[in-house]
Amino acid sequence: MPSEIRNIELAPSGEEKIEWVKRHCDLLRTLHEEFEKTKPFAGKKIALSVHLEAKTAFLCLVLNAGGAEMYVTGSNPLSTQDDVAAALVKAGLEVHAWYDCTDEEYERHIKAVLSAGPNIIIDDGGDLVHMMHTRYRDLIPQVIGGCEETTTGIIRLEALNREGKLEFPMVRVNNAQMKHFFDNRYGTGQSVWDGINRTTNLIVAGKIVVVAGYGWCGKGVAMRAKGLGAKVIVTEIDPVKSIEAIMDGFDVMPMKEAAKLGDFFVTVTGCEKVIDEEDFSVIKDGAILCNAGHFDCEIDMKRLREIAVEKKEMRNNIMGYRLSDGRWVYVLGEGRLVNLACGDGHPAEIMDMSFAIQALSAKYLVEHGSELKERLIDVPEEVDRSVAEMKLKFLGKSIDKLTPEQERYLNSASL
Ligand SMILES: NC(=O)c1ccc[n+]([C@@H]2O[C@H](COP(=O)([O-])OP(=O)(O)OC[C@H]3O[C@@H](n4cnc5c(N)ncnc54)[C@H](O)[C@@H]3O)[C@@H](O)[C@H]2O)c1
Asked: Do 335 and 240 belong to one domain?
């Protein structure tokens, strides 16, 4: 099937973006070199649905250098960059994606990459796996396995697995230490504020920032808000995470109370309707709402659109909604992941680690997929560790090694 992208003429700009990323992705460059020689994916088809920007494009090129036939789509209607998609097509990959696609087009693009009959699936949020299990069951037998990038995708896979319906092994890439320790916390922490700042051009210092969810991502978003000089309020449903937020120096309260106080709101829970109609009814005039969770259901956009008496685009990626009493509420990037809809996503060095885990997990599936009994597996410890060791080497850092005596001490029962 021919690629479906907006405009192949945009390729030079996409190539520049990918070149820049390559310079900062030491691990992926190393894997590119290795895979070019060893061809671990020779004869294999890989379908990939990940936010289609330059770092993802480089991952696609690394897998392609390893012999994989690549079938690529995005994982969110607003995160695909058309110039990057064009650069991949120019490099000979099959791509089905464009920025601002409708829901129907998004689904068509997912179907297009699945109909190639992939052996490996690389998913971000679970859309490929979900569609394969519902509409493309005939293609399941040739799938060796897949990798899932994000927390929400893993929650969906775990639900499928609990019902005994997951048909092939999936690697929980997100759960690798070298993924969520850095990507979810430092990646989301930095890129969310990059997206908000470049879109709003407003001061954060002295403002009240409400962060909904104090998981791996929420911790990063709150930490960077504090660094920008904001007063941070955290909302949570988990008592332990709430205490952690308090001890980290943040205030904690229910959203119903925080809604009245916040200037900026960032939802990052993976849950739905975290900011709902009751919150809209008390939110301050001029409050800015955005979401960093995987799906656009964390702010109840449907209800906000229904109750708004006026809607006005204030700037690119900022939609204003006027409520019946005259208050304006502003939403960034239509409530989709703000760091990707309003920015370029995580820093290159962060995605270098996450995607090194992806590439090595895909290789692991090719080598061991047929032996795997479990449907949901974690990234093997040795892969996690080897990525950490490679990263340390590129950072120019060395660390201590246990002496045989210390090893004996740590392994001794009489410790
Ligand atoms: N924007 C990005 O680039 C990016 C990167 C990684 C992950 N994600 C997505 O962000 C979301 C969160 O990921 P994570 O790794 O931080 O997950 P996590 O499980 O570590 O944290 C989620 C937190 O939200 C809390 N929570 C759940 N429902 C809530 C509610 N109704 N109100 C308040 N708190 C609630 C949970 O108790 C938990 O502490 C997921 O959807 C994930 O896929 C986005």
From this structure: yes
Atom of ligand 1 nearest to the CA of 271: 28
Decide if 406 is inside a domain. no
Q: How many domains does the chain have?
A: 2
Query: Ligand 1: residues within 6 Å at CB?
Result: 150-152, 180, 184, 188, 212-218, 235-238, 241, 268-271, 274, 292-294, 337, 339
Whether residue 382 lies inside any domain: the answer is yes
* CA–centroid distance, residue 235 to ligand 1 (Å): 12
In a domain, 407, yes or no: no
Domain that holds residue 257: 188-341
Asked if 126 and 153 count as a contact pair (C-beta separation under 8 A), the reply is yes
> b/e string for 341-361 if b means 16 or more Cβ within 10 A?
bbbbbbbbbbbbbbbbbbbbb
Strands, E, within 200-352: which ranges? 208-212, 231-235, 251-252, 264-267, 287-291, 310-315, 318-322, 328-332
Interval between CA 415 and ligand 1 midpoint (Å): 39
This model's pTM is above 0.70? yes
User: How far, in Å, is the centroid of ligand 1 from the Cα of 336?
Assistant: 14
Give the whole-angstrom CA distance, residue 260 versus residue 39. Answer: 57
Residues 78 and 212 both lie in one domain: no
Closest residue to atom 40 of ligand 1, CA basis: 270
| Tens of pLDDT, residue by residue, the chain (415 residues) | 799 999 999 999 999 999 999 999 999 999 999 999 999 999 999 999 999 999 999 999 999 999 999 999 999 999 999 999 999 999 999 999 999 999 999 999 999 999 999 999 999 999 999 999 999 999 999 999 999 999 999 999 999 999 999 999 999 999 999 999 999 999 999 999 999 999 999 999 999 999 999 999 999 999 999 999 999 999 999 999 999 999 999 999 999 999 999 999 999 999 999 999 999 999 999 999 999 999 999 999 999 999 999 999 999 999 999 999 999 999 999 999 999 999 999 999 999 999 999 999 999 999 999 899 999 999 999 999 999 999 999 999 999 999 999 999 999 987 6
Domain contains 22: yes
Distance CA 49, CA 380 (A): 22
**Mutate which of 149, 269, 275, 351 to test ligand 1's pocket (most atoms within 8 Å of Cβ)?**
269
Whether 16 and 85 share a structural domain = yes
CB 131, CB 160: distance < 8 Å: no
